[in-house]
Amino acid sequence: MNRKELNPDASPQAEFGAFFRSVREEQGWRQEDLSEPMGYSGSHISAVETGRKWPTLRFARSADTTLGTGDRFEQKWREIKHGVLLEGFPEYVMYEGKAIEVRLYDIGVIPGLLQTPDYARVLANSAVQRGAVTQQQADERVSFLLRRQKTLFQRSRPPMMFVVMDESCIRRPIGGPEVMAAQLDHLIEFAANPRTMLQIAPFEMGERRSLYLPVNLITMPDRTMVYYAESQAQGNFDRESPAVAAALTAYHQLQAEALSQAESVAMIRQVRKGTP
Q1: Which residues form the signal peptide (predicted)?
Q2: What distance in Å separates the CA atoms of residue 126 and residue 235, rounded to the nearest whole number?
């Protein structure tokens, strides 16, 4: 049987097809054997796998159900369909859902995992107004974020979360007074959780601030760590020990210089007084 070589870089659908083939072959399935359990003809499955036909959300979900892959195919479909995720981030999120510890640092905006739905929608819709994304992509960004929050916070035992935010995150008004007031209230509630630690890196830290880009560090159940950082247009995911160790050291230095949680909450309350 002729076996077409796949180039996942050729197109989004080719990327999905290559991913589908890798999982199918890893589990020992033939295309024709998947036809009945997935509910698609062998020719249709072949066309998706070789990048000749766009996968649908229904196809992705059927693949997840048949191959027992959780929601990996659905997430891959959402990634290539809407293009809202930076390189490396989908892989990072796969680890995030199983983390026992999460460390976050952000500048300018509240970290996504701590955003209220209204705050997140304002940010997504502003990208639409700038022409950076479509409304459909903006909606998908918010839906994806809310799914991430649910995955982490509604677990039977949520991970420990350590969050350091630059002071600009709470000073920068987003969405008007009501949206910002609700967001600040949410931060105060977050800090009261026994499994969280919230700190503000004040402006006065100046050059002592050890991180200059948003950073995510997560610890897995086996105590291994992964690292993700991003700029405006590029993401970087890393599991290599030297890179992770360097990021963790910088994070610890940042925590040491930042305000304590009590001081941070006091600052948030002070900013909150200026909102309704």
Answers
A1: none
A2: 21
Whole-model pTM over 0.85: no
Which amino acid belongs to residue 64?
A: D
Which letter does DSSP use for residue 205 in this model?
G
Show the tokens assigned to 217.
């560090």
Q: Find the helix or strand (DSSP H, E) in which 215 lies.
A: strand 215-219
Q: What contacts 24+ positions apart, CB below 8 Å, involve 109-112? A: 109/169, 109/172, 109/174, 110/165, 110/169, 110/170, 110/174, 110/183, 110/187, 111/163, 111/165, 111/169, 111/214, 112/145, 112/148
How large is the average pLDDT for residues 71-100?
Answer: 76
Q: What domains are there in the chain, each with its CATH number?
A: 12-82 (1.10.260.40), 89-113+155-272 (3.30.870.10)
